Fold this protein.
Amino acid sequence: MLIAQLSDPHLTTGLLAAAPAAGLHRALGRVLAVRPRPDCVVITGDLVNNGRPDEYAALRELIGRFPVPVHLAPGNHDDREALLDAFGGTPLLGGGFSTYYHVDHEAASVVVLDSLVPGSSSGQLGEEQLGWLDGVLAGRPDVPAVVFLHHPPVAVGIPAADSLRLADSDAFAEVIRRHRHVVRVAAGHLHRPVTTAYAGTVLTVAPSTWKQSTLTMSADEQIGWVDEPTAFLLHLVEAGGCVTHTVQVSHSAGQTCSS
């Protein structure tokens, strides 16, 4: 199974709308160019920039007729109620009225979590959601599972970002560690690609489809924005595990090569 993970499009409306919309549009177009075509797309949070209904309307305009199933996860820039008003009951939220849900594909379980804490840039899942996750993962132990959320559950060496990671990461790790069929935990939030070991599996963080943050690994320097390529992650899930590729978008080109 192929899963395309896009992240942090930060769609908005008005004078600043063009660049984020163009970034997401290009990324979705690049998804359609992948062969074989991915089975689904997951967008891991900060879907819009200010959580406004008009921004979710703009998101619907971009993805509403996309020919590949799309699953949405909320991020700290999102608004839970506005997101549910816009997409509740549709396949974009797993067909239900919750911002955390699972979609059982034949070849893999796609589990989408909600780490949004209103008014905070940090994330948290909470006991209720973690208990739900434990039960969902226990339900299909023989099928690979990929777990998606916005906030990375580990420090990655960028102090400004590490202070805003998932607060209950230890409790999350306990759940993940109990289920050896979790072949990938996939996050966003950082606007940078990052890979690390986590809870007996692998954590991958997707870059933004809009703009990337600086690799600021010193606490006395201010994090900023940098003109690096936009990209998404492509997760190839098989019975034996998961391989993740970084697919360039803004700097992509194709030519035939031989070896």
Observations:
- Helices lie at 18-33, 53-63, 80-87, 127-139, 159-162, 169-177.
- The first strand starts at residue 2 and ends at 6.
- Residues 5 and 105 are 16 Å apart (CA to CA).
- The chain has a mean pLDDT of 95.
